[in-house]
């Protein structure tokens, strides 16, 4: 045990004896009983919290509860009335005290539960193992070190990455080191005060994210720890390993190989932003290894900064997130803008657009997915194959355009539930993506979305196009000419009560629309019971002539999400584009009327 943890134990072992912390607010009946239970739970939590910051925060909240502060009671209910669910995305939430927040108690319970799961499923006589990584968010390094110590204390071989690194490094390390599991401490592109805990499995899962039933089994082990032991009683050990720098070098080498070097390249002016995350140090090394020149940098966003001071939300999809990138691009006359999200597992691309007030247009995730999918299909067709054809895959809410590419090249095509935990498991996969800026271009190396390897693939494509006097925008037009023009749009209905989403879904099922915006609905697929090789999910898929509508509740936010897709292969490219724009407008108007 380190001296730091001895000090933290001393702080956390001090019982709460402040009279205001125990005194309950004046109330009646059931509410008093509820608040009393919450206070008891909070005091028990407080007395096992090894973090001086959240310990003090909760102590002060209990004082306010005891002083009849109604806002404090509401806050206490939010923190202790439920628990962050451990699911197929692991854990994710705001950093604060309580079981419905991210903190060292919750992480300690998660680490112990995951260790118990790994020990239980290990073959007799073998020692399970885990690799642990972390990004630059608040407390990421602390949560990672806690995990390493608790894993080692439980008898699991634990390997901690040498410093803060992108999420794809953990997905890579699970396969490269042959370990049983991987943990990445990150909240990706969530708001600044959030953090999270992402889990991968090795062995037969080949480094993919967890899926059922493993997520439920891990959750059960975590709950068992939470209800039977204080985190201060969990055995810890500093006998964990630090991964060698050569692991990072092997990732750099494997990712640089994505560029291939099959054709002539022409130099481009490129702007890059790390969005205050951890992408730059790694992607710079990959660019060097792949033979690409260094890009112009958005300097205020290039170093890791947990406060994310220049963006409201550190997500390249959010309005305004790329403003500084566009400013820098105008300064240097950039041909291309490349952006990673804070943990570098996503990629955003922008291209010059004279019609835009910014002078640049961010491509949609579907547009980038089309281009990279076409690139992968051409490479697969050129290399040939024996046996089953390679596969392209995307989530069910992504554009049908990838299916058109697969058919044209004789490849298999798969649609999966949302999330790379599903996309990455497609047999024979050579490329997969989801519309939320996630791309898997090298499944033989990383079984998860990877914004760094995707950037290298896109740069390879762009520089090859430049060698023939063409641009990414030209390539999109070529796509429309060959496969048809595909367009997409989204409607997000944010609600205050989740029951509102349930009512909309029930209404659509009970009284399905015969048309949307005047376009006849040809067929409706209710995926509540699965179908077409997709596991059961609360999704409605509506088929129309030249269009599709997907309706589903968000898995991470109180939103109803509606995905609109339309396509046309009639007329010239401008005529196809105009037809799709009109279709999307009609679909959006019709769906807004339906859910209002």
From TrEMBL:
Among the GO biological process terms of this entry, one is:
purine ribonucleoside salvage
Q: Where is the composition biased (Basic and acidic residues)?
A: 1-22
Q: Which cofactor does it need?
A: Mg(2+)
Which EC class is this protein assigned? isomerase
UniProt keyword annotation of Metal-binding present? yes
Ranges for domain Alpha-D-phosphohexomutase alpha/beta/alpha: 84-225, 250-350, 365-478
- Note down the stretches annotated as region Disordered: 1-32
Instruction: Extract the PROSITE patterns matched here.
Output: PGM_PMM
Origin, by domain of life?
Bacteria
Q: Which InterPro entries match?
A: A-D-PHexomutase_a/b/a-I, A-D-PHexomutase_a/b/a-I/II/III, A-D-PHexomutase_a/b/a-II, A-D-PHexomutase_a/b/a-III, A-D-PHexomutase_C, A-D-PHexomutase_C_sf, A-D-PHexomutase_CS, Alpha-D-phosphohexomutase_SF
Note the Pfam families from the entry: PGM_PMM_I, PGM_PMM_II, PGM_PMM_III, PGM_PMM_IV
Where is each Alpha-D-phosphohexomutase C-terminal domain found?
530-570
Q: Which Gene3D superfamilies match?
A: Alpha-D-Glucose-1,6-Bisphosphate, subunit A, domain 3, Alpha-D-phosphohexomutase, C-terminal domain
* The keyword Isomerase is assigned to this record: yes
Tell me the keywords, alphabetical order: Isomerase, Magnesium, Metal-binding, Phosphoprotein
EC number(s) per UniProt? 5.4.2.8
Query: Which family does the record claim for this protein?
Result: Belongs to the phosphohexose mutase family.
Name-wise, this protein is Phosphomannomutase
Question: What is the originating organism of this protein?
Answer: Herbiconiux flava
At the highest ranks, the source species' classification is: Bacteria, Bacillati, Actinomycetota, Actinomycetes, Micrococcales
